[in-house]
């Protein structure tokens, strides 16, 4: 009780007498000792001198003098600021940074083809030895289980000597939680730990991985105290442009070891991926539809048969048609396949970390109904394949049953004119007018819709889809400069098709220097007049290019091999219009086997683009020779496909009062999609002015975005808008307020948005990089089932820092009480002794 009273009198708040040790008294002298001694001596002499002159006996003067001396001594002592000091040291614990990779690749589930590694994972994650399917657990799940098993034994092992700091990292590191040093026999419940709660809340959704950057970030946290080690749980695949060597050098300079725990299978997982390649956007009913599909495999050490199937879906969307049974179970389709092909993929190169085996499969069918159809391609899963979403892709194609309107202008009745005209008359899907310029006024022009002259106004030209010129002179009196410019606008602005069949008299040399020259997808040779100095008596056999083999124009049979044999047996050509080669970005389908230009073989059949429209050039008029031994069908098939190839996508059968044109057909996810709208009539313009918005639909025909349109000028008929797709996929764009004309579909456009899956490019773990990082920094790469043993060896880098506790005594209750007691006693004695 007396000790507590003394502590109260001394105002001790942090020091306890008799319980804290060692304790000593410390003085803060206001001057040197000799100065204080001198003043003390002078004060004593002054007191003695004062009381020597007082009246009374010696003892009556001695007692007050001593009290006066004690009072001076007390004041002097307080001026020297006495402090009671408890000597102690503060231990600043070292900390261990535990980094858990939360990038999207950590959500991957692995099959672990290496059974020994699988057994190690089972032990490390605390899974049952029997009946465990590792493919049920993601990489992040395994990390979580390994750290939390046995009431967080691994965390307790680290926390016995170090402060544990949990970080989640993807492209950058984030502190999630920290825990203080634990008592060895701590009974704290693991679910009460902030680190445990943070671990349970982690989600693998990062878009990139930066392991070296995460290491450097930990080394830069200098305000956190001594760092004993960095422990990294990751698959090791760095997707950011960071230097592993820089991170190693930084860790070595700081003498901080890095312990790495490789998560995930080191071999590429077994995986198939299908991507439907671009195909014709306008296909007619009963035409051959050849859909090309790229099939890619990974993780197949041996050649493996892969079956690829083609399905037709309702345009409203029915999902993929797959049902997943369990994890990576078999997929079954809900509808019958239209066609299927089996290819063999895999081999040693497909297991290489940087290589994937792939091939292109062609799936062929003939649509039996018109409409905006959606097709689905599927690759049947292979044993051990877990990721099934990329086994499916879709593509939408416009299947037409409409009539194409063609205007064919020819200079004179050469053979190609005769047989082309007859082919068009036999084709029910084409309505055309043939204008033969050399015919006299009484000649009845031919065609299903005969014409007497070339259109003179845009309104007369607009109903046509394609304009085809034969061997004509554009400088003749049948075509004015204004009509040439009108034709250029028809192609470039309105998306019409235009083609030229070369001839010996005028085409293409007479087109040079005219507005129409820009519509010809080859560079015109100014020195070629159309004739040769010698008779052409030796035929040549045109050669298909790679583009020509893939083109529908030269597909004469559903089987590509049969089609190639048919083409190889066709009669040769003789005459050719010499040019300087194709224009940039033009597509050469057929080329001369011997003649050369400065840029390559002489082009014979070329497809090109001008503005919104498509263009065509044929450098010979000898296709009529293909009738020999084959009859009419082959020439008919060729020219019908040429005309269809010139159609603007989605133009036929749609409402042409409104043209919706995306800036590009393919966008990356996150990229802004820009769309331009052209209005062609006043009624539609009024409707769009009142509600200038587009509606964007996803592949399930659900509206996902409404896009505001900005008019490009006060009187302009052009509008523009943009949007960012909410996810990857295919999107349909339509005007919200414009109803289609009778019997036509709404004007629309398609865009495809691709997701750049950086995390999925290398799904296997990179144990080599993790091992280098660990070994070159003094750490170790740790198996999942040896975490506790390995991490217990992390060195203790805690620091002892002096942390004395001081309690001042000069202003305490005891000092005040002594001062009052001494001065009061002296005053009373002086009063009693008659000294006042």
Q: Mind summarizing the main beta sheet?
A: 8 strands, mixed
- Supply Rg: 45 Å
Averaged pLDDT, please? 84
Secondary structure category: alpha+beta
What does this structure look like?
This protein has 836 residues and is α+β, with helices and mostly antiparallel strands. Helix content is 25%, strand content 27%. The protein contains 18 helices and 37 strands. β30 and β31 form a beta hairpin. It is elongated, with a radius of gyration of 45 Å. The relative contact order is 0.12. The model is unreliable at 183-191, 316-333 and 349-355 (pLDDT under 50).
Describe, in short, the structure shown.
This protein has about 850 residues and is an alpha+beta fold. The protein has 18 helices and 37 strands.
Question: Characteristics of this structure?
Answer:
25% helix, 836 residues, elongated, 27% strand, 18 helices, five-stranded mixed β-sheet, 37 strands, alpha+beta, eight-stranded mixed β-sheet
What are the SSEs and their pairings?
Layout: H1 2-9, E1 23-26, H2 33-52, H3 58-79, E2 83-86, E3 89-92, E4 95-101, H4 115-125, H5 139-159, E5 163-169, E6 173-179, H6 194-201, H7 211-219, E7 227-234, H8 244-254, E8 258-262, E9 271-276, E10 282-284, E11 289-298, E12 304-313, E13 339-345, E14 357-365, E15 371-379, E16 392-400, E17 404-410, H9 415-426, E18 430-436, H10 458-461, E19 466-469, H11 481-492, E20 497-501, E21 522-524, E22 543-544, H12 546-550, H13 560-568, E23 579-582, E24 587-597, E25 600-610, E26 613-618, H14 632-645, E27 658-662, E28 666-668, E29 672-679, H15 682-690, E30 693-697, E31 703-708, E32 710-711, E33 718-724, E34 729-735, E35 748-754, H16 767-775, H17 787-791, E36 799-802, E37 805-808, H18 813-832
Parallel strand pairs: 4-5, 4-7, 7-8, 10-16, 17-18, 17-19, 19-20, 20-26, 28-35
Antiparallel strand pairs: 1-2, 2-37, 3-36, 5-6, 9-11, 11-14, 12-13, 12-15, 15-16, 21-23, 22-24, 24-25, 25-26, 27-29, 29-33, 30-31, 30-34, 32-33, 34-35
Helix pairs in contact: 2-3, 3-18, 7-8, 9-14
């Amino acid at each position: 009780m007396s000790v507590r009273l003394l502590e109260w009198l001394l105002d001790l708040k942090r020091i306890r007498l008799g319980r804290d040790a060692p304790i000593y008294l410390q003085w803060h002298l206001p001057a040197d000792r000799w100065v204080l001694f001198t003043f003390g001596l002078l004060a004593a002499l002054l007191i003695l001198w004062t009381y020597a002159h007082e009246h009374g006996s010696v003892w009556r003067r001695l007692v007050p003098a001593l009290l006066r001396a004690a009072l001076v001594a007390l004041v002097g002592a307080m001026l020297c600021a006495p402090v009671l000091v408890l000597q102690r040291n503060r231990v600043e614990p070292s900390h261990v940074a535990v980094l858990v990779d939360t990038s999207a690749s950590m959500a991957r589930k692995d099959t672990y083809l290496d059974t020994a590694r699988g057994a190690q994972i089972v032990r490390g994650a605390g899974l049952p030895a029997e009946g465990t399917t590792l493919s049920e657990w993601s990489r992040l799940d395994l990390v979580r289980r390994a750290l939390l098993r046995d009431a967080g034994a691994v965390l307790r092992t680290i926390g016995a000597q170090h402060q544990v700091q949990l970080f989640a990292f993807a492209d950058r590191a984030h502190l999630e939680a920290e825990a203080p040093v634990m008592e060895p026999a701590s009974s704290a419940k693991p679910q009460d730990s902030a680190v445990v709660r943070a671990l349970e809340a982690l989600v693998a959704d990062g878009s990139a991985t930066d392991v070296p950057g995460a290491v450097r970030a930990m080394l830069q946290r200098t305000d956190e105290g001594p760092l004993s080690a960095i422990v990294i749980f990751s698959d090791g695949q760095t997707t950011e442009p960071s230097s592993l060597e820089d991170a190693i050098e930084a860790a070595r300079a700081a003498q901080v070891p890095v312990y790495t725990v490789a998560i995930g299978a080191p071999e590429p997982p077994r995986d198939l991926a299908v991507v439907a390649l671009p195909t014709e956007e306008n296909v007619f009913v009963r035409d051959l539809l050849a859909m090309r599909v790229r099939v890619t495999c990974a993780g197949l050490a041996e050649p493996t048969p892969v079956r690829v199937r083609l399905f037709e879906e309702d345009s409203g969307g029915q999902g993929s048609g797959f049902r997943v049974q369990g994890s990576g179970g078999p997929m079954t389709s809900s509808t019958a396949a239209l066609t299927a092909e089996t290819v063999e993929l895999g081999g040693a190169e497909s297991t290489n970390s940087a290589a994937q085996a792939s091939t292109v499969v062609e799936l062929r069918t003939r649509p039996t109904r018109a409409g905006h159809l959606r097709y689905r391609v599927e690759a049947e899963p292979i044993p051990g394949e877990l990721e099934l979403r990329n086994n499916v892709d879709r593509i939408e194609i416009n299947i037409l049953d409409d009539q194409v309107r063609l205007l064919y202008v020819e200079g004179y009745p050469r053979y190609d004119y005769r047989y082309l005209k007859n082919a068009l008359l036999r084709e029910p899907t084409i309505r055309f007018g043939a204008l033969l310029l050399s015919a006299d006024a009484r000649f009845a022009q031919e065609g299903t819709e005969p014409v007497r002259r070339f259109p003179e106004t845009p309104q007369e030209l607009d109903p046509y889809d394609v304009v085809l010129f034969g061997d004509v002179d554009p400088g003749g009196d049948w075509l004015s400069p204004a009509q040439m410019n009108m034709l250029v606008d028809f192609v470039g602005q309105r998306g019409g098709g235009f083609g030229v069949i070369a001839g010996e008299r005028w085409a293409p040399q007479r087109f040079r220097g005219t507005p129409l020259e820009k519509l010809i997808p080859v560079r015109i040779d100014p020195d070629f007049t159309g004739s040769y100095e010698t008779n052409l008596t030796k035929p040549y056999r045109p050669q298909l290019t790679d583009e020509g083999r893939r083109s529908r124009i030269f597909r004469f049979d559903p089987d590509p091999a049969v089609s190639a044999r048919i083409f190889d047996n066709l009669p040769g050509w003789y005459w050719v219009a010499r040019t300087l080669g194709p224009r940039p970005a033009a597509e050469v389908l057929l080329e001369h086997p011997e003649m050369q230009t400065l840029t390559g073989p002489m082009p014979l059949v070329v497809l090109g683009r001008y503005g919104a429209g498509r263009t065509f050039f044929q450098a010979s008029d000898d296709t009529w020779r293909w009738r020999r031994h084959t009859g009419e069908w082959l020439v008919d098939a060729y020219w019908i496909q040429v005309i269809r190839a010139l159609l603007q996508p989605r133009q036929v059968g749609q409402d042409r009062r409104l043209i919706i044109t995306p800036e590009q057909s393919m966008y990356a996810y996150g990229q802004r999609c820009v769309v331009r709208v052209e209005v062609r009539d006043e009624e539609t313009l009024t409707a769009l002015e009142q509600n200038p918005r587009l509606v964007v639909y996803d592949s399930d025909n659900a509206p996902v975005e409404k896009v505001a349109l900005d008019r490009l000028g006060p009187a302009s008929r052009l509008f523009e808008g943009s949007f960012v797709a909410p996810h990857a996929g295919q999107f349909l764009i339509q005007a919200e307020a414009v109803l289609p004309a009778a019997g036509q579909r709404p004007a629309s456009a398609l865009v495809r948005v691709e997701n750049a899956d950086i995390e999925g490019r290398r799904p296997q773990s990179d144990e080599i990089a993790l091992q280098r990082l660990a070994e070159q920094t003094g750490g170790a790469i740790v198996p999942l089932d040896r975490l506790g043993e390995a991490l217990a060896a992390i060195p203790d880098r805690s620091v002892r820092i002096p942390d004395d506790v001081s309690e001042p005594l000069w202003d305490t209750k005891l000092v005040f009480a002594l001062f009052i007691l001494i001065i009061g006693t002296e005053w009373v004695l002086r009063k009693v002794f008659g000294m006042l």
